[in-house]
Amino acid sequence: MAKQKNIFVCQECGNESPKWIGRCPACNNWNSYVEEIKITGKTNARHQSPENKTSRKPKPFSQVEAEEYSRQTTGIGEFDRILGGGFVPGSFTLLGGEPGIGKSTLALQLALDINKDILYVSGEESAGQIKMRADRLELSNPKCLVYNETNLDEILLHFNKEKPSVLIIDSIQTVYTPLIESAPGSVSQVRECAARLLQAAKDSSVPVLLIGHITKDGSLAGPKVLEHIVDTVIQFEGDQHLNFRILRTLKNRFGAVPELAIFEMKENGLHQILNPSAYFLHHNDQDLSGITVACTVDGYRPLLIETQALVSPAVYGTPQRSATGFDTRRLNMLLAVLEKKGKLTISNKDVFLNIAGGMKIQDTAADLAVITAIISSVTDQSVNSKTCCCAEISLTGELRPVSRIEQRIAEAKKLGFTRIVISSYHKNAESKGIQVLKASSLQEAMQSIFRSND
Ligand code: TYD
Ligand code: MG
């Protein structure tokens, strides 16, 4: 007999409690508990007794054979790359992102830009709306089946009947199972539906792509639980006012993390950007003061990004420090180092820092470029537009080494830079075709950078 029980579930982390509590003891979120009805007993398919399950037994490790994945290409090269080379059979992938970022567009492109049987299940848009979007994308795949359904049992029924080569669910928050009485999108529903879809993926060896929404604070909506059960978590990021979108792998059981791919949203869908550095760098052959190019790495991708600084006398009593695309606390730290070690007075000046193109830099290798841009603005001396910088600055004003230096130098060379300034810790870093200038301190670096202008 199935039993019904009223419980309270934290919508952020899935923690359960018999009574309502204001603050979740597991994830410390306030007001996240919602009443849900939990049904336990035989009706729950996953809780059936194991007699009718396959006769899998524990076996010695020496007898286990490594699985060879024959990866399935998705038809979008950059998406393949962030998956680690395409879909692995039976893999369970979650694509998360804010509303309107382009998840459905990407999923539809994946479904239509390839000549394979794909089952595209949408709980958010009608088949007609999907067709309209497909027309806009100018894509059509006669083998793609579109299914407008939210009931999980129906979805699984058609999935088993059609046996597609990929199943796409847009989105997991709209799917529900009648076995659980809480609303679609609640933690219990999402957890149960995902678990059953996972089982279907593993049993049939068909890769499943789930689309998931993101909450206000940027985490994948409600189900932190979901992140644990899926094989791969891909996050779609970007500013809705800017055209570029970043796809980032946050977790991947079958590939490298953190991989990164950049797309551009255009009138007719998402376009891959195969050379992101060139995309963010607007070649300006004029040497302008306050501009320095940083050689950063995001994920495994080297990206050359322009940093712009403007330093002007403070009009009000307290000088302003403002940074776009860069951590303000790190900017303050760099300014303090500059004041102390560089003997430059900036405490009475406003400092504005902008990372061009709307990118956000988290790599500390951009430190040197930020400091150079600031010095360049203060002294009104421009930096050669063919010079780029790549080093972390320590509190003592030393240049610290950074990861993947060879890759960074190679990328700078590829994009036509003739000089790169790095830390002298990288003793063996050399390259033909680009001058690698090494410095151990800020003073040394500045001498190289501003001297190399001649
Ligand atoms: P969508 O894929 O519906 O976002 P999500 O599923 O993540 O909520 O993307 C919608 C946005 O993308 C919308 O603002 C319009 C824009 N868009 C384009 O700019 N070009 C296109 O070709 C398409 C299909 C959408
Ligand atoms: Mg959508």
Report on the architecture of this protein.
The model has no long low-confidence stretch (mean pLDDT 87). The chain has helices at residues 77-83, 103-112, 127-137, 152-162, 187-204, 224-229, 276-280, 328-341, 367-379, 405-414, 442-451; strands spanning 3-10, 16-17, 33-40, 92-97, 118-122, 144-147, 166-170, 208-213, 232-238, 244-252, 260-266, 269-272, 291-298, 301-313, 321-324, 349-355, 387-390, 392-393, 399-400, 419-423, 435-439. Strand 1 (3-10) and strand 2 (16-17) form a beta hairpin. Helix 2 (103-112) crosses helix 3 (127-137). The protein folds into three domains: 3-40; 71-274, P-loop containing nucleotide triphosphate hydrolases (Rossmann fold, 3-Layer(aba) Sandwich); 279-451, Ribosomal Protein S5, domain 2. It starts with a strand and ends with a helix. It contains eleven helices and 21 strands. The protein has 454 residues and is of the alpha/beta class. It is 25% helix and 27% strand. The longest helix is centred in the middle third of the chain and has 18 residues, at 187-204. The strands form four sheets. A nine-stranded mixed sheet has the order 6-5-7-8-4-9-10-11-12, with helices on both faces. It has a seven-stranded mixed sheet with strand order 15-16-14-13-17-20-21. The structure holds thymidine-5'-diphosphate and magnesium ion (MG). The site of magnesium ion (MG) has 4 residues, from helix 2.
